[in-house]
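Thread: Modeling a multi-component assembly for a lab meeting

Hi all, long-time lurker, first post. My supervisor asked me to bring a structural picture of a complex we are working on to next week's group meeting, and I have zero experience with this. I have the sequence lines for every component (365 residues in total). Could someone generate the structure of the whole assembly? Inputs are pasted exactly as I received them:
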Amino acid sequence: MPELKFGQVFTDHLFIVEHAEGAGWGRPQIRPFSQGITVHPAAQVLHYGMCCFEGMKAYLGVDGRGRLFRPDLNMQRMYRSSRRLMLADYDPGELLECLKELLRVDHQWLPEREGYSLYVRPFMFSSAHTLGVGRPTRSTIAITLSPVGPYFATGLTPIQLFLSEEHVRAWPGGVGDCKVGSNYAPTILPQAEAQRKHGTPQVLYTLPSIDGSDPESAVISESGAMNCFFLLDKADGSGLELTTPPLDGTILPGVTRDSILALARAWNDIEVAERYLTIREIKQASEEGRLREIFGCGTACIVQPVNALIRANGDVIAAPFDASSTSSMTARMTHALTDIQVPSDWSVPFDDAKIADKELFRAEA
Ligand SMILES: *Cc1c(COP(=O)(O)O)cnc(C)c1O
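Re: Modeling a multi-component assembly
Sure thing. I ran the full set together rather than chain by chain. Output:
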């Protein structure tokens, strides 16, 4: 197989279903990908970013069965995002059944090579024909599948992140906890600037205090599409602590984040805390040699080791650890999360999906 660029190759089919106020949900369709999707030039999604999406992976389990990782969480999250945008109501459990059917139809696209998978992209948008900024009266749900290769060709390769103290990804009362398109468009510029000025491929956002009087008191948020974890030696010498920011509405509730927290808590050998970390705290921990590891996490990379945070003033907050050493938390988590792709409660087969005789989407009352 030639090298696969993320998200550029698609399978033969896509799933689509449309809703119009009054008429209710139309017939769900699995149709040739090449037919594309037609939208009206005034479709609200093209003007006001009224869309949301999900990202998950389907893979071949060691037992030869096609599987999804905790897909119910992705479906619930997309449902929450879509409700925030007032898109048409639907049953997320039924959408999961539609996804399984699409995977069954395109199952020959499921890569057999280790580390390869099908990236699953469900999305929903306002297809209402109006330039009015108002509640969507038409909604479309679609799902595409894209084969992807391993994120890391050779082992875990650490990256540096630019620590943004200027641009903010999400804010209290905003929609940072929803996977809505409008959260992502504004992150392209800061990311391109960070790459150009500091050579870092991604940005770690912070949330500064509103008056900006004490820049070091800004709290760490997350990366453009990754939640972030910090492994610290506690200042009082009482051992290690794995921390990540709490789900206060500014953080995307990642499935990988949730899985890492659950695993670390089950291992029960280090403290696990969902709490705020300020720039001051991690800077001090780094200077005192207590910042053991930093890693990002998300469906695409699973776990991404980070060995330094670069600030705009050139300061470096270093976490110089060997991610590939089997004793690192980063490597331990990576292996645990990869091993879960074997049959487990979190690994849901889709090859037995049967939806043919089921009414998928109830017509609107
Ligand atoms: C999708 C996403 C994540 C990762 O979520 P997973 O469910 O683990 O893939 C983290 N942060 C942001 C902003 C995201 O969009």
